[in-house]
Each structure stands twice: as structure tokens, then as C-alpha cells.
Specification:
Radius of gyration: 25 Å
Largest sheet: 4 strands, mixed
Helix content: 25-40%
Strand order of the largest sheet: 1-6-5-2
Number of helices: 12
Order of helices and strands: HEEEEHEEHHHEEEEHHHHHHEH
Distance between the termini: 45 Å
Number of strands: 11
Protein name: Mitochondrial protein
Shape: globular
CATH architecture of the largest domain: 2-Layer Sandwich
Pfam families: RVT_2
Length: 359
């Protein structure tokens, strides 16, 4: 707690024309892998939702590397035999110097006697300031499954279903979203369950827990970036058709492979309703636009939105190739698969047993 207080300067009177931002202590118990208590932590957080843009802060941009860029760098390092160094900065957010004048109330436990009316001016960032931008949920001993989602499962929004704790469900989905940074095989399943965070039911929770059961059984597997004779970057795209039973929007996916291992992937519901399988594929891959530039009324919204792909193809920036269904890796991003097909595409992504690969 004293470390958090170091972000605060000496007491001062609140200048005219300024307002204070309230703060609170957030307590957390950090556990070891076996469930024992490691240590107790406390964060002093600012109630950033009361920040006023232009007064308390002006910029919120933070130069954070995207996960796909990090994976690309790992792939390049493997290809070129570069050494990799990993560093960690403790309490990173608390090292940021503030440019704006920000005043906060005296935090609980640190109120100065006879100076209760005074406020603190921040000299460094606090958690939850706008400019300072694998939880397992007791499933370590769960029954294991071989796939993250059942093939025949069709999730829907169920207003009459038994509702569960909304906050708990969001925490579960958030943890799984974090894990998709290194687990492309769960991307589609996590994308599906993330659509029901407004009204989650017991059924949605069971599907989410199944993903944890799958992860527990594949904890020794991961992406293996290796050196290839010839460096290559290949992108694959695919889409189902009207797969969402609620609004009949299609689910698209893509995978970018660097030296035969995935470095970037996505599974997401399309923002528009497509009227045919052709349009669904067109939105994600723009194949029809590149091959047939004819414009008609029903496809105008698609042609305008994805017109730049046709220009890139014509200029030779990208090349488009047809991919057979049996070799379409992105199927794993658009729909649940039977076990043989799932395991085949799983390996094509570059996923393997890490210990065996290192040996």
C-alpha cells in the first residue's frame, strides 16, 4: 500500500476551478498454483469514470504492442536465430508521469489529522486513470474433453433460461479471451460465448466451462515457431453462412501463417446480414469482387466496403488462391468440427506438444 502512496505528492489546498477525483482501495488475494495464499495485494485506484475529457486528461493512447506483432517477432526470431529477452516492469502503471494537474481525495488509512480538508495532487499515474490504460475458476481437477465445443451445439439467447451471475460470466469470458492470444484452437468457441454477456444463462456457462476442460487437457500443447528453408507469409479466410440463429449473421475467420505456424487469427460475427453463401464468403475474402467487378444493387454495400482488395490484387500487392475445403485451416475459426477434422486443422495451425518439439 505504501508503494501506491508514492504516486501521491504532498498535501495541498484544492486550487480554484479544480475538482477532486475519489479513490478507493481494491484488495486481492494472490494464490499459488496449488491454491494456497501467496500474498495479499492492495491497489489504490482512481474512479476514472468521473474524469472529464479536456480537464482531467487529454490523451489516452498507450503504445502497447499487438499480440500478432509479438508472435510475428517470435517467428522471425526463430527463422533468423535471434536471441529473445523477456523483461517485466513491476507496477508498470505507477511509473507514468502525469502531464495534467490531477487532484484526489485522501485515501482511507492515510488521512492526515487536522488536514482532512486538504487534497493530494498526483505526480504519477494510478490504476483506473483514463490515461493509464489464467484464471481457472476452480477447474484444475475438471473432467477433460478433446474439443472446446460440441459439434451439434447451437447457442441462442434464452430470455426464459435460468440467469447466472453476469459479473462472473464476464470474468470467465475475459480470461478466455486473454488465452486466445496463444490458443488459436479456442478462438471460435470463445467468440461464440462472448455474444451472450448481456444475458448469460446456465447453458452459456456450461459451454464456457467446457472450454476450460479442453484447455486443462491440452496444457502441454502450444504453437511451435521453427526455422524454415524459405520464409513465407500466407493468409487464409473463410465464412459460414447465416450461422447465428438469432440474427442470421454469418461468422467469418482468418488465419495468417508465417513459416507454417499461425501468427494472427480471428473469429468474428459479420456486421451485416448476407443473402447468400457467395456474399458471406465475399465479405471475408472479397473473392467475388476480385474476380467479377460487376456491380448490382444488392452487392453495392459489399463492393464499396471492400473495394480496396480489388486494387491490391490488380497492383500485385496480394495474390489470391483457391483453397480446397479439406485443406481450409480457417474452418476451425468458423464452426465446430468433428474430432478428426479438428485435430487435423489443429496441427496445421502449428500446434504441437511443446516438450516433444523441443526434444
Amino acid at each position: 500500500m505504501d508503494e501506491e502512496i508514492e504516486a501521491i505528492e504532498e498535501l495541498t489546498d484544492l486550487p480554484k476551478g479544480h475538482q477532486t477525483i475519489r479513490v478507493k482501495w481494491v484488495y486481492k488475494t494472490k494464490l499459488k498454483e496449488n491454491g494456497e495464499v501467496d500474498k495479499y495485494k492492495a491497489h489504490l485506484v482512481a474512479k476514472g469514470y468521473k474524469h472529464e475529457f479536456g480537464v482531467d486528461y487529454k490523451e489516452v493512447f498507450a503504445p502497447v504492442a499487438r499480440h500478432d506483432i509479438i508472435r510475428l517477432m517470435v517467428s522471425l526470431a526463430a527463422q533468423n536465430s535471434w536471441p529473445i529477452f523477456q523483461l517485466d516492469v513491476e507496477s508498470t502503471f505507477l511509473h507514468g508521469e502525469l502531464q495534467e494537474k490531477v487532484f484526489v481525495d485522501q485515501p482511507l488509512g492515510y488521512v492526515k489529522v487536522k488536514d482532512e480538508h486538504k487534497v493530494y495532487r498526483l505526480k504519477k499515474a494510478l490504476y483506473r486513470l483514463n490515461q493509464a490504460p489464467r484464471a481457472w475458476f476452480r477447474m484444475a481437477n475438471c473432467n477433460l474433453v478433446s474439443m472446446p465445443m460440441e459439434v451439434s451445439l447451437k447457442l441462442v439467447r434464452d430470455p426464459e433460461g435460468r440467469k447466472i451471475d453476469n459479473t462472473l460470466y464476464k470474468k470467465i469470458v475475459g480470461s478466455l479471451m486473454y488465452l486466445t492470444a496463444t490458443e488459436p484452437d479456442i478462438m471460435h468457441a470463445v467468440s461464440i460465448i462472448s455474444r451472450y454477456m448481456e444475458f448469460p444463462t446456465v447453458m452459456h456457462l456450461l459451454v464456457a466451462k467446457r472450454i476450460f476442460r479442453y484447455l486443462q487437457g491440452t496444457s502441454e500443447y502450444g504453437l511451435f515457431y521453427k526455422k524454415s528453408e524459405k520464409s513465407s507469409l500466407v493468409g487464409l479466410t473463410d465464412s459460414d453462412y447465416a450461422g447465428d440463429l438469432g440474427d442470421r449473421k454469418s461468422t467469418f475467420g482468418y488465419v495468417f501463417m508465417m513459416n507454417s505456424t499461425a501468427i494472427s487469427w480471428c473469429s468474428k460475427k459479420q456486421s451485416i446480414v448476407t443473402l447468400s453463401t457467395t456474399e458471406a464468403e465475399f465479405v471475408v475474402a472479397t473473392v467475388c469482387t476480385c474476380q467479377n467487378p460487376v456491380l448490382h444493387g444488392r452487392s453495392k454495400h459489399i463492393d464499396v466496403k471492400f473495394h480496396f482488395i480489388r486494387d491490391l490484387t490488380r497492383d500485385g500487392v496480394v495474390e489470391l488462391y483457391y483453397c480446397k475445403s479439406e485443406d481450409q485451416i480457417v474452418d476451425i475459426m468458423t464452426k465446430p468440427l468433428k474430432l478428426p477434422a479438428f485435430q487435423k486443422l489443429w496441427k496445421l495451425l502449428g500446434v504441437c506438444a511443446i516438450n516433444k518439439s523441443l526434444n
